[in-house]
Design goal:
Elements (H helix, E strand, L loop, with lengths): L3 E6 L6 H13 L2 E6 L11 H12 L5 E5 L4 H8 L3 E6 L2 H17 L4 E6 L9 H9 L13 H8 L9
Parallel strand pairs: 1-2, 1-4, 2-3, 4-5
The structure holds adenosine-5'-diphosphate (ADP).
The site of adenosine-5'-diphosphate (ADP) has 18 residues, from helix 1 and strand 4.
């Protein structure tokens, strides 16, 4: 058993749902690498550097969690790290089809790699980075949705009518 797991995602921005998954994965696996990447289907609001800094700020509380970033295919990134476990989250049936396809694709690209799914905590099944950005645009209170350390940064970038964020 390899105790190293990689949790890849866009984290644009990291939410309390992501953080819940990281906390649970860190209890199961010896070492977890949270790997910030880009998803070609989504245009990110935050730059890679901003997202990495946010995830680092929030994950510093977990001694066995490391934060990294990659522009590579996730399967190649895992090979380069010697990781055989991917962690992903399932919120609802709508995630299932995409996540199954990605898990099979990743195993095809790297036959040593398998995906472990954690079911989202019921408190966070509705929560996505997209919903957070939408709420921020309308000046909603974000404290129940994202880690408090990054609320100000999200409000600065997306809040106030999104003056600094080109939609
Ligand atoms: P990606 O663009 O790779 O899907 P995301 O940052 O949107 O990146 O999501 C990364 C992973 O975290 C995905 O497996 C997603 O299903 C999971 N996830 C997202 N939001 C939540 C949540 N609220 N609770 C649990 N898992 C979540």
């Amino acid at each position: 058993m390899n105790g190293l797991a990689v949790y890849p995602g866009t984290f644009d921005p990291i939410t309390l749902g992501h953080l819940n998954l990281i906390k649970r994965a860190a209890l199961v696996f010896d070492h977890v690498i949270v790997c910030v990447g880009n998803n070609s289907n989504k245009k990110a609001a935050f730059t890679m550097e901003e997202r990495v800094a946010q995830v680092k700020k929030v994950c510093s509380r977990f001694p066995n969690v490391e934060v990294d970033y990659s522009e590579k295919l996730v399967a190649d990134y895992c090979r380069s790290k010697g990781a055989k476990i991917l962690v992903r989250g399932l919120r609802a049936l709508s995630d299932f089809e995409y996540e199954c396809q990605m898990a099979n694709f990743n195993r095809k690209m790297n036959p040593e790699l398998d995906t472990f799914f954690l079911v989202a905590d019921s408190k966070y099944t509705y929560l996505s980075s997209t919903a957070v950005k939408e709420m921020a645009r309308y000046g909603a209170d974000l404290s129940e949705f994202v880690p408090r350390e990054i609320i100000h940064e999200i409000e600065e970038k997306i809040g106030n009518g999104g003056k600094s964020y080109a939609r």
